[in-house]
Amino acid sequence: MNKTSIKGKLDEVAGSAKRTAGELIGDTRLESEGMTQQMKGKVENAWGKTKEAVHDAAKNIEAQIDKEAQLKSHDSIVDVEQDNKG
């Protein structure tokens, strides 16, 4: 979990609490603020998860490129060794 996701989760919880409090005491303004904060938190949380997924995908691609480069390097060495023997 990254900072954006954590902040989003906190906003979701705080917004839910405000919304519930507004419902209980009949304060529509507080209820509305809570709903807004809760939705903001959901968006922040989703954005954080998206950023994390992109970061993970980039790391996986980088690892795959490194692996392929190592294999090509190894194949080149083997080719040179075979040429020297042949």
Q: How is this structure best described in words?
A:
The protein is mostly helical and 86 residues long. It has one domain. It has two helices and no strands. The protein has helices spanning 3-25, 28-85. Helix 1 packs antiparallel against helix 2 (28-85). The protein is rod-shaped, with a radius of gyration of 26 Å. The mean pLDDT is 90.
Features:
86 residues; mainly alpha; rod-shaped; 2 helices
User: Which outline best applies?
Assistant: rod-shaped
Strand content bin: under 5%
Strand element count:
0
Number of domains: 1
The span between the termini is 56 Å
Find the structural class using helix and strand composition.
mainly alpha
- The string of secondary-structure elements, in order, is HH
